[in-house]
Amino acid sequence: MPALERLAVRHAPALLRFEQENRAYFARFVTDRGDDYFAEFADRLAGLLTEQDAGECHFHVLVDGDDGTVLGRFNLVDVADGSAELGYRVAERASGRGLAQEGVRRVCALARDEYGLRQMVASAALANPASLAVLRRTGFVPVGEVLLHGEPSLRHVLDLT
Questions:
Q1: Kind and range of the H or E element at 59?
Q2: Is the pLDDT of residue 11 over 80?
Q3: For residues 38 and 63, what is the distance between their CA atoms, to the nearest angstrom?
Q4: Which residues lie below 8 Å from residue 104, measured CB to CB, with a gap of 6+?
Q5: Contact predicate 118/161, CB 8 Å
Q6: Between the CA atoms of 156, 51, 34 and 4, what dihedral angle is there, to the nearest 10 degrees?
Q7: Alpha carbon of 123 to those of 47, 103, 119: distances in Å?
Q8: Taking the mean position of all CA atoms in its chain, how far away is CA 146?
Q9: pTM of whole model > 0.85?
């Protein structure tokens, strides 16, 4: 199993490559980040690391131990009052291998054991059955419909206590 690592500056080249190589694939499920995201990647990463250092967010990358490529991202954002919002994405070449499910399990364990969180919230588009299945299989419970980037989605909650 690839390593789940807390995001650090050393991941920048591999993370940028991950986002560039999978841009079209991700755009099939979520709103494209746009050209500015890539043009300003270094500044954006610095901002994320500042938020992480302040405890506002916890960012993780799933790294292939053989070649150091990033296979996925598992992010905890809007950390407050013992809760955080989970977001994740896995590279197209790594999809269908259970990495999303395992990564979600591992980041939820970190959220509970390392970050002291009691609850996780996650949303997935109804048009993305794979993400909905990952949330279900990792114990998330649907709590209602929401719009995610203008798309009908289902909001889920996981009790970590």
A1: strand 58-63
A2: yes
A3: 20
A4: 74, 86, 88, 134, 135, 138
A5: yes
A6: -60
A7: 24, 16, 14
A8: 18
A9: yes
